[in-house]
């Protein structure tokens, strides 16, 4: 089946829905493709909130820019940082107009939190489920919009370029153009052709390629893998952020429950299970140091003491205030027998966020013509070597606006490419092959966690490369002889993305930001004994 839309949006988090809402307002037909249901996205998992300068009496754009550059280890693109920070207040206003509610004080001003790496209180939130509230508000707006058609439980297999017209495309081809995407319909088992004038990738992150992650299982880097195979430029993949404080609860690893950084901003203290503090050994900012430093410190302490977790302590805070500010965390911990007002919270680092991705310019354009990327799958340059807490959601909103503004100016000059062939769906799939796919996906997680994790080395990275290369060859051979299914496509994408993270980590001959290798130690505290 062939479908035609002015805009094809792949991904239904804050980035994809923000873009869809803005371009649809110009009465353009928009297809919003969701890998599962519209409400399952990384956006919904975000607890902390959205960073924006809204209290001009004490905060400034310059402070937010400085904090972002420091956290990013000065790898961040200053133009991207300035664009996001200065347009963040307008982005907040758009979210509110779409029906998103942020907590306010009695005087009507925003109730602002502070998180690690921020010099001021500037985090807007909705209790401790800010992402869920943003997702809720946007979903209601999307579902009620007459020009947006939502395709739930549809899987993007490949984006369409000249390659699918029989033309050779290499990374040196100057005019690669995207004409839409091949989309798998699970109800029919067929791969349909979605032709579009403009395509936006908003497919989220890669956390599910690790054995433990705060991301949902669907975060297999699909958009990045598709773009890379289409010869788009992919950048800064070595910078994978591990959230320092995921709830340690064996059996819950995909996703691991996130203990928001706002809890440390609230006054939570990191301790060993025996009550001993340890962050003073690593950074003068203690528990509010940037995430990469805190994650490495926790990793170091766990290795020194043979622990599978450390603890976050809020028992010294007012119990009623704790319950009010963090009702969902309180309820979650209570469900596994932990009263956080009286007991420590067991925590450990977990794969959380990718700072790199599909390289885009200030308009959200990738190196492929008519293909935009927004959100975690993109590399705007904002995050550099390490994302500042709560900068991700506002980046998605600001860049969705920039991409929508730019695309709206050019979309009418584009035509559909009616020469695109339909997908060749020959092939079979057996139960035995499904078992192999599940086993290979587990192996990818083990490889990435063991060899390409918080602390790396040349030996570990090259070992990961070799293992992934074997899996790549096996999977590509399998993909060519079976029908396209979600499982085989996810495995293929996870291997591609794991390879990119590993290769770009090997190429960076220094410790910088989130990429820490014992072969090139740099930071004030030497973590190089983490063998």
Write the layout of secondary structure elements.
Elements: E1 2-10, H1 14-24, E2 30-33, H2 42-45, E3 50-51, H3 61-71, H4 78-97, E4 123-124, H5 130-143, E5 148-151, E6 155-160, E7 180-185, E8 190-201, H6 222-229, E9 234-235, E10 240-247, H7 262-265, E11 269-271, H8 291-305, E12 310-313, H9 319-325, H10 327-335, E13 345-354, E14 357-359, E15 371-373, E16 378-379, H11 392-410, H12 431-451, H13 458-481, H14 486-507
Parallel strand pairs: 1-2, 1-8, 2-5, 8-15, 14-16
Antiparallel strand pairs: 3-4, 6-7, 7-8, 9-14, 10-13, 11-12, 12-13
Number of DSSP strands? 16
Low-confidence stretches: none
Describe the sheet with the most strands: 7 strands, mixed
The Cα radius of gyration reads 22 Å
- Structural class label: alpha/beta
Cα separation of the termini: 54 Å
Order of helices and strands: EHEHEHHEHEEEEHEEHEHEHHEEEEHHHH
Helix content: 25-40%
Averaged pLDDT, please?
A: 91
Helix count equals 14
The coarse silhouette is: globular
* Beta-strand residue percentage: 15-25%
Structure report:
This protein has about 525 residues and is an alpha/beta fold. About 35% of the residues lie in helices and about 15% in strands. The chain contains 14 helices and 16 strands. Strands 1, 2, 5, 6, 7, 8 and 15 form a 7-stranded mixed β-sheet that branches. A hairpin with a 4-residue loop joins strand 7 and strand 8. Helix 1 packs parallel to helix 5. It starts with a strand and ends in a 24-residue tail after the last helix. About 55% of the residues are buried. The model has no long low-confidence stretch (mean pLDDT about 90).
């Amino acid at each position: 089946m062939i479908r035609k839309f002015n805009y094809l949006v792949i991904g239904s988090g804050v980035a994809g829905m923000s873009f869809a809402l803005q371009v649809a307002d110009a009465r353009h037909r928009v297809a919003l493709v969701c890998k599962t249901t519209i409400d399952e996205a990384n956006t919904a998992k975000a607890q902390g909130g959205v960073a924006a300068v809204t209290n001009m009496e004490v905060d400034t754009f310059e402070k937010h820019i400085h904090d972002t550059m420091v956290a990013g280890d000065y790898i961040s693109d200053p133009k991207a940082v300035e664009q996001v920070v200065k347009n963040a207040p307008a982005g907040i206003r758009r979210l509110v107009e779409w029906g998103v509610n942020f907590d306010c004080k009695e005087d009507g001003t925003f109730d602002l939190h502070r998180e690690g790496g921020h010099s001021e209180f500037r985090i807007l939130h909705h209790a401790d489920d800010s992402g869920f509230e943003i997702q809720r508000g946007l979903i209601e707006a999307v579902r009620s919009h007459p020009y947006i058609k939502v395709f739930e439980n549809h899987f993007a297999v490949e984006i369409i370029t000249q390659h699918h017209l029989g033309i050779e495309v290499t990374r040196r081809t100057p005019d690669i153009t995207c004409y839409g995407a091949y989309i798998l319909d699970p109800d029919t088992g067929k791969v349909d052709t979605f032709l579009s004038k403009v395509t936006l990738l908003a497919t989220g992150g890669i956390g599910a390629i690790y054995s433990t992650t705060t991301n949902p299982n669907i975060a297999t880097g699909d958009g990045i893998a598709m773009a890379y195979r289409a010869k788009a430029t992919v950048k800064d993949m070595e910078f994978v952020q591990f959230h320092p404080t995921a709830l340690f609860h064996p059996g819950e690893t995909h996703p691991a429950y996130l203990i928001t950084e706002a809890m440390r901003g609230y006054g939570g203290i990191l301790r060993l299970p025996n009550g001993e503090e340890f962050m003073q050994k690593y950074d003068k900012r203690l528990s509010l140091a940037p995430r990469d430093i805190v994650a490495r410190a926790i990793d170091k302490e766990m290795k020194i003491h043979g622990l599978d977790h450390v603890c976050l302590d809020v028992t010294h805070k007012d119990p009623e205030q704790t319950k009010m500010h963090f009702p969902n965390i309180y309820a979650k911990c209570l469900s596994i027998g932990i009263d956080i007002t009286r007991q420590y919270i067991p925590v450990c680092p977990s794969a959380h966020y990718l700072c790199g991705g599909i390289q885009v310019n200030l308009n959200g354009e990738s190196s492929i013509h008519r293909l935009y990327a927004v959100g975690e799958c993109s590399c705007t340059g904002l995050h550099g070597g390490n994302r500042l807490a709560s900068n991700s959601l506002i980046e998605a909103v600001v860049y969705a606006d920039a991409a929508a503004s730019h695309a709206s100016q050019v979309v009418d000059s584009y035509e559909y490419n009616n020469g695109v062939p339909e997908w060749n769906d020959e092939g079979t799939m057996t139960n035995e092959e499904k078992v192999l796919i599940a086993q290979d996906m587990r192996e990818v997680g083990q490889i990435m966690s063991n060899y390409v994790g918080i602390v790396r080395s040349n030996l570990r990275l090259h070992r990961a490369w070799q293992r992934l290369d074997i899996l790549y060859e096996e999977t590509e051979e399998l993909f060519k002889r079976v029908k396209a299914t979600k499982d085989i496509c996810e495995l293929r994408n996870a291997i591609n993305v794991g390879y990119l993270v590993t290769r770009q980590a090997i190429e960076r001959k220094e410790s910088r930001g989130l990429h820490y290798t014992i072969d090139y130690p740099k930071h004030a505290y030497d973590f190089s004994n983490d063998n």
